[in-house]
Amino acid sequence: MTEGEGLSAFFVLLLLIIAGLFFGYAVYGYFSAAKKIRFYKDLLANVDQNELAGKQRDIRNKALEHQPGDNITPARKILCSAELKDKSLRAVNLFWMLAPSW
Q: How many Å apart are CA 66 and CA 43, to the nearest integer?
C-alpha cells in the first residue's frame, strides 16, 4: 500500500467513525423523545379535550412529580394548552425569554 492509499484509508475510517457517532446520537435522541412522548400520552390518556382546561392543574402537578427539579430555563420551549377566543383549546409552544422591558 502506498502512502496516498494509507492516508485515504485513514480519512475514510475517520469519516465512518464520525458517521457512527452521529448515528448513535440520533438513535439516542429518538429513544429519549419516544420516552417523553409515551409519558405525555399516558398522562393525557383519560382526559377529554373538553376537560383539559379544568384538569390543567392536576395534569401539571402529575408532570412535575414525574420530573422533580425540572426548571423552566430561558429559551426552553414548553408545550402548553391555550384557550382561543372561540373557546377551543390548542397546544402551543411557549418559552421564557430574558429580555429588557425597554
A: 10
Cβ neighbours for 49, distance < 8 A, ≥ 6 positions apart: 89
Query: What would the grid cell of residue 68 be?
Result: 422533580
Q: Is 95 helix (H, G, I), strand (E, B) or coil?
A: strand
Query: pLDDT by residue (tens digit) across 64-102?
Result: 666 544 566 666 677 777 787 887 777 777 776 666 555
Cell numbers representing residue 48 in the block: 377529554
CB 94 within 8 A of CB 77: yes
Rounded CA gap, 34 and 21, in Å? 20
C-alpha cell at 9: 484509508
pTM score, two decimals? 0.50
Query: Nearest to residue 73, comparing CAs of 52, 89, 94, 51?
Result: 94
